[in-house]
Specification:
This protein is α/β, with parallel strands linked by helices and 321 residues long. The protein has a single domain, classed as Zn peptidases (Aminopeptidase). The protein is 34% helix and 15% strand. It contains nine helices and eight strands. An eight-stranded mixed sheet has the order 1-2-4-3-5-8-6-7, sandwiched between helices. The longest helix has 21 residues. The radius of gyration is 18 Å and the shape is globular. The relative contact order is 0.16. It holds the Pfam family Peptidase_M14. Its cofactor is Zn(2+). Keywords: Carboxypeptidase, Hydrolase, Metal-binding, Metalloprotease, Protease, Signal, Zinc. This is Peptidase M14 domain-containing protein. GO terms for molecular function: metallocarboxypeptidase activity; zinc ion binding.
Length: 321
C-alpha cells in the first residue's frame, strides 16, 4: 500500500533528502503543506543550494488554517506552466508526482533543457486539510474539511458551477458536493486566483489526479465540445505520446464526458474560461488510489513526461484562442 506520510515517502524514494529514513511507526498526521519537519528541511536545502532557481510562496490558508503553498522554479522566465495536485485528498500519487517534478527540475535540470524555457509553478497539495484527514482518519476521503461532510474542490470553481450533472452535486453528503456557491472554499479560490493572476502568460495548466491513465481536456460540464476542442485534444495527445515514449504505457485521451463522467465547476473548465492556452487534467496510475511504494517514481516520470511534452507542443503551436 502507498504508505502514510506520502510526502516524505515520495521525497525519500527519489533521494531528495540525504540519509533520510522513513519512520513507518511515526504517528500519521504530522505532515502538511506548511513544509514543516523533513519537508521544510528539503525545501530549505533546495532554496539554499539553488536560490536563483526556486522559491516558495503561500497562496492562502485552508479552512483549518494550513498553508497552501506554491513552489516557483525558473522565476526569470515569463512563460509559465502551472501544475496542481491533490484537489482530491485521497489521490496521493498525484501529490508524489508533483513532488517528483520539483525534484527533477532542480536536481536534474540538465536532463530537461526544454523545461528551462518556462517558469514552473507547482502546488503539490492544494487540499492540505483533506490530505491530513486521509492520513489519520479516512484513507479514501475525497473532499476538503469544511464542515464534517466537506466540499469537492474540483466542483467548486467559478465556471458552470451551477450546472447540475449529478444529484450528488447539491447533496452535502455526496462525494461530489459542489458547495453553497462557486469559490466558496479557500482552497479552490487560491488555485483560481493563481490561474487568474497568470492567465496571460501561462502556456499550460495541468491538474494532476488519480486514477485512470487518461488525459482530459474541456469541456467537463457537458457532452458538447469546447471551442477549438481539436487544439486541446492535440495537446492531450502529445501528453499521451510523451508517456508512451517514457514508460510504454498507453494513456487514453478525451473529455471527462467521454472518458469518465461529466463534472461542473472543474478547474480545467475555469482555466479554459480564462483563455489560458492549454488546460489539461491527467488521471495518473491504474486501478486504485493505493499505489505500491516502488511505483511512485514511475508515476512521477509519466507526469513529468506528459507535462513537458505538452508544454513544448503548446508553446510551439498557435492556439486559436
Amino acid at each position: 500500500m502507498f504508505g502514510l506520510g506520502v510526502l516524505m515517502l515520495a521525497l525519500a524514494t527519489v533521494h531528495c533528502i540525504p540519509n533520510f529514513t522513513f519512520d513507518t511507526d511515526a504517528a500519521a498526521g504530522n505532515l502538511e503543506l506548511d513544509f514543516t519537519y523533513e519537508a521544510n528541511e528539503w525545501l530549505t536545502i533546495l532554496i539554499n543550494k539553488y536560490p536563483s532557481n526556486i522559491t516558495t510562496k503561500p497562496l492562502d490558508r485552508s479552512h483549518e488554517g494550513r498553508s497552501i503553498r506554491a513552489v516557483y522554479i525558473n522565476r526569470q522566465q515569463e512563460k509559465k506552466i502551472i501544475v496542481v495536485a491533490n484537489l482530491h485528498a485521497r489521490e496521493w500519487a498525484a501529490t508524489s508526482s508533483a513532488i517528483y517534478i520539483i525534484h527533477e527540475l532542480i536536481y536534474h535540470a540538465n536532463k530537461y533543457p526544454e523545461a528551462s524555457e518556462f517558469q514552473w509553478i507547482v502546488v503539490p497539495i492544494a487540499n492540505p486539510d483533506g490530505y491530513e484527514y486521509t492520513t489519520t482518519t479516512d484513507r479514501l476521503w475525497r473532499k476538503n474539511r469544511n464542515s464534517p461532510l466537506g466540499i469537492d474542490l474540483n466542483r467548486n470553481f467559478d465556471y458552470k458551477w451551477e450546472v447540475e450533472v449529478s444529484p450528488d452535486d447539491k447533496n452535502p453528503e455526496g462525494d461530489t458536493y459542489r458547495g453553497p456557491s462557486a469559490f466558496s472554499e479557500q482552497e479552490s479560490k487560491a488555485i483560481g486566483n493563481l490561474l487568474k493572476e497568470h492567465a496571460q502568460t501561462t502556456t499550460l495548466y495541468v491538474d494532476l489526479h488519480t486514477f485512470g491513465e487518461t488525459i482530459l481536456y474541456p469541456w467537463s460540464f457537458t457532452d458538447e465540445a469546447a471551442p477549438n476542442a481539436a487544439w486541446s485534444r492535440s495537446v492531450a495527445e502529445e501528453g499521451a505520446r510523451g508517456i508512451l515514449l517514457r514508460s510504454g504505457k498507453t494513456y487514453q485521451v478525451g473529455t471527462p464526458a467521454e472518458r469518465s463522467f461529466k463534472e461542473s465547476g472543474s478547474s480545467i473548465d475555469y482555466c479554459f474560461s480564462l483563455n489560458i492556452k492549454a488546460c489539461i487534467a491527467i488521471e495518473l496510475t491504474a486501478g486504485s488510489y493505493e499505489v505500491q511504494n516502488s511505483t511512485i517514481p514511475l508515476a512521477g516520470q509519466e507526469a513529468l513526461a506528459a507535462v513537458l511534452t505538452m508544454a513544448v507542443y503548446a508553446n510551439a503551436g498557435n492556439s486559436p484562442l
